[in-house]
Design goal:
The protein is an alpha/beta fold. It is built from 13 helices and 13 strands. The chain starts with 5 loop residues before the first helix and ends in a 14-residue tail after the last helix.
Length: 411
């Protein structure tokens, strides 16, 4: 008898936890979306939010600033997701993009460590994070330099009195490997450095706790596991009391201590609100506000346990059903070391992903040979994991991926 099967999946789906949460989302029956690491599922409330904004545009215009929560929304959204990263209310705002927030956080950290000149990061960090660091390095005209490491152990060993900022991705976006945030942050603080964590591939899927880990800054996407919608606002976290008197690198009126005073001279807001810049992106924020109907109903512990169960089952099914066909799982076996996605390699990986789309499974490919199944515990079931593996098995066993039409690989 096979250890992993449809009946096993059905039994696991009968376990308690996250009751009724899937019903809050649009879940097309003809497609299995294993791409929450790219774009997360859409809450049903998003349609009403979008229509409401259009109606307000017609009927309220500027009055929307006083009659709706347009100004307050970055803070409301930040408080909504704060429990998912172990943050206290008032320490997170949703705004801008991860790239922009990474710049704000790193520049702020450098200001707090003016006698140090090194930024430590991973070779495998997400490219935009590295590009931000390289831009800072270039603009410093030789004052700041980047030091790269390949592993968590190397990072801990490399933290010395030269390092001002340790800027890491919590999870490798390709392999799904998760670093020990508490261990690395402790080593950074022992060396006198500050930490900036990118939580894009962990928050909303696996356990994160910036408070217990004592992280200094954190940033991340909203549109992946947090379901803020395509291009939705990112977020930034600031440890309470850290550099309240310091100006942000991007000073703007929404980060002013009194925005409607319209003062000529800037005075930074205390806490994380100083990282707000210009006028809120109301359209994106309104779509993202559909999260307000979801996350307050979710127990983070149930969320994380469901993700563990789903990805443990998925890895086992991949090995059992597709291992003989050349599939090799790259993600860690230990869920404590695993992020939101399960990564595996196979022959013709890019073409396999394209063929899977025609069979109703949406996943993603990253060079050179990584296929990623991004598992949203809010909507994905064990039976979905089983069916996705069966369709993958067919693509490989029947060599469907070798058809010429699958040679061109999409983003």
């Amino acid at each position: 008898m096979k250890e992993f099967s449809l009946s096993t999946a059905q039994a696991l789906d009968g376990s308690p936890g996250l009751a009724g949460i899937r019903d809050l989302f649009e879940c097309p029956e003809d497609v299995i979306f294993m791409d929450a690491n790219s774009v997360g599922p859409m809450p049903k409330a998003a349609r009403q939010k979008a229509q409401g904004l259009l109606d307000d545009w017609v009927n309220l215009r500027r009055r929307g600033w006083s009659q709706r929560s347009w100004v307050e929304m970055p803070s409301l959204l930040g408080d909504c997701i704060a429990p998912l990263i172990g943050a206290a209310p008032g320490t997170v705002v949703m705004c801008d993009s991860t790239t922009v927030n990474q710049f704000k956080a790193v520049r702020h950290a450098l200001t707090l460590r003016p006698d140090r000149r090194v930024i430590l990061t991973q070779n495998g960090n997400f490219p935009t994070d590295v590009h931000v660091l390289q831009g800072i390095e270039r603009a410093s005209e030789g004052l700041i330099s980047i030091r790269f490491v390949d592993s968590e152990d190397e990072a801990v060993a490399a933290l010395d009195h030269h390092v001002a900022v340790a800027a890491f991705s919590h999870v490798d976006y390709r392999s799904g490997e998760r670093w020990d945030m508490a261990r690395v942050t402790q080593a950074a603080h022992k060396a006198g450095a500050l930490t900036v964590w990118d939580l894009s591939h962990s928050a909303g899927a696996v356990p994160v706790n910036v408070s217990v880990s004592s992280a200094d800054f954190a940033v991340g996407c909203g549109y992946k596991y947090l379901c803020s919608g395509p291009g939705g606002p990112a977020y930034i976290y600031l440890k309470p009391g850290l550099g309240d008197e310091i100006w942000p690198a991007l000073a703007g009126w929404m980060g002013h201590a009194d925005i409607f005073a319209f003062a000529r001279d800037y005075e930074p807001h205390a806490g994380v609100k100083k990282f707000l810049t210009g006028t809120p992106l109301v359209g994106a924020d309104e779509l993202a506000s559909a999260m307000l109907d979801v996350w307050p109903k979710v127990d983070p512990r149930e969320l994380w346990e469901r993700h563990r169960s789903l990805t443990d089952f998925l890895i086992g099914a991949l090995k059992q059903e597709c291992g003989p066909l050349g599939v090799v799982v790259n993600s860690p076996e230990d869920h404590n070391r695993r992020g939101g996605n399960v990564s595996f390699s196979s022959p013709g990986a890019g073409s396999v992903v394209e063929a899977l789309i025609d069979l109703g499974v949406v996943s993603s490919f990253r060079k050179p040979d990584a296929i990623r199944f991004g598992v949203s515990p809010l909507v994905i079931r064990h039976v979905d994991c089983w069916e996705a593996v069966q369709r993958l098995k067919r693509v490989l066993a029947e060599a469907i991926w070798q058809q010429p039409k699958y040679a061109k690989v999409s983003v």
